[in-house]
Specification:
Length: 431
């Protein structure tokens, strides 16, 4: 049997309770993701390795927990770096490329990279002044192009919450930023306040970033099927949605009765539907493993306002939110569809984390992982196939927003948190 294609869709700040297939009280219709779940397996005890984005993305790409590496609790901004991924570290795309896959990353990277100034010195810092120092004619180091991806189009950090609003293609910024973003022209509502006053490029559409990402993923799929029809691909589609600010594209404004953030969740669902439709149109859906998950739980602002304004709880039924070691900070949706292999409409209560993607996909494609790679990754393929006898994972280690200072370990129905409070948000502070 030929090796299957792999489409990995990573949503941003999508909560367990944001999707109808996980929460029947969700105020936002998510028909495309619900359909994906009905055609595959829905995991009910899946977790992000960390409760914030950068360390989770490191762990997803490497199968290793981020607290094991220097600065593994960092969340980069602007042109911050260097990459958390060490030179020579085997990555998920690198492993797949070694098995003959074409590999592409579209969307948010946020694992760190290195920009250089006019004299060739690394910048590696957040903030506006650091962006001012960058020589955008120079090659960027440590991004996806240096860690196993044949092609990259996306952003260094959070696309619309940053000091740098510009697209990167492979290892360059083809259209550099030219001015400060005009925040006065952007939407104003309770979910719109996370946009930093950074530098923006002329071709960067703040309210349509995910539409651009979708177009580039479609182009990759179409080009691949046309030019390399016999070669498998790995597409990592990493969305802006539904990270704040909630800027749904114009065609989705008012699409729900759950406000701007509800509209943004609806847009994410539509994007997933468009990607699935592209697989079908290109007649490769039956040969493609599709994985959908999120990098951590829902943002505090989203949860608080959605509960109050629309009766929607993105963390339901769990306690806590993004940054917290409490369950709502890291229990995330995880859906896998593999036609002919994964039973449609099935669920799994197996304990799993996003670090497990690497060992599982390696098993799917028949790759042998060396001992010095994917150290925290467990092969969940028996769970996918419904052949597991007992629990695969004996325990699960996680890190909250404080990195190595806020670790927890889960075994069975018990969890030990080696810190005080939530490990993330301050719930004892005045509002």
């Amino acid at each position: 049997m030929a090796a299957p294609n792999v489409l990995l869709i990573l949503a941003d700040d999508l909560g367990y309770g944001d999707l109808r297939c996980y929460n029947d009280q969700s105020k936002v219709a998510t028909p495309h993701i619900d359909r994906l779940a009905s055609e595959g397996m829905r995991f009910t005890d899946a977790h992000s390795p960390a409760t914030v984005c950068t360390p989770t993305r490191y762990s997803l790409m490497t199968g290793q927990m981020a607290f094991r590496v220097p600065n593994g609790g960092t969340v980069f901004t602007g042109v911050g770096g260097p990459s958390l991924i060490a030179t020579g570290r085997l990555t998920l795309p690198g492993m797949l490329r070694s098995k003959g896959y074409s590999t592409a990353c579209i969307g948010k990277w946020h694992v760190g990279l290195t920009f250089f100034d006019n004299e060739g010195h690394p910048v590696n810092a957040g903030g506006l002044d650091a962006v001012r120092r960058v020589d955008f004619s120079r090659r960027i180091q440590g991004g996806p192009a240096d860690h196993g991806f044949d092609f990259f189009f996306g952003t260094a950090c959070c696309p619309t919450t940053d000091w740098l609003y510009a697209f990167i293609e492979n290892d360059r910024v083809p259209v550099p930023p030219t001015r400060l973003v005009d925040k006065g022209s952007l939407p104003k509502h309770a979910y719109a306040n996370d946009c930093r006053p950074g530098f923006i490029a002329p071709d960067f559409p703040m309210e349509e970033v995910d539409i651009v990402f979708l177009r580039r993923s479609r182009e990759f799929l179409e080009k691949h099927v046309s030019q390399s029809p016999g070669k498998p691909f790995f597409l990592f589609h990493s969305t802006q949605a539904v990270h704040l600010p909630s800027f749904p594209a114009p065609q989705f404004k008012g699409a729900t009765k759950a406000g701007p953030h509800g509209d943004f969740i609806y847009e994410l669902d539509w994007i997933v539907g468009e990607l699935l439709a592209t697989l079908e149109r290109l007649r490769i859906a039956e040969d493609t493993v599709v994985i959908l998950t999120s990098d951590n739980g829902p943002e505090v602002t989203s949860v608080v306002h959605m509960r109050s304004d629309h009766g929607h709880d993105g963390a339901r039924p769990w306690r806590g939110m993004k940054r917290d070691a409490w369950e709502g900070g890291h229990r995330v949706p995880f859906i896998v569809r593999w036609p002919g292999k994964v039973k449609p409409g099935s669920t799994s209560s197996q304990l799993t984390g996003l670090t497990d993607v690497m060992a599982t996909v390696a098993s799917v494609v028949g790759a042998d992982l060396p001992n010095q790679a994917a150290e925290d990754s467990f092969n969940m393929l028996p769970a996918w196939l419904g052949t597991a006898e007992g629990q695969i994972r004996p325990f699960l280690i996680q890190q909250a927003a404080g990195g190595a200072r806020t670790l927890s370990i889960r075994r069975g129905d018990w969890k030990l948190m080696d810190h005080n409070g939530s490990g993330g948000n301050r719930y004892d502070a005045s509002p």
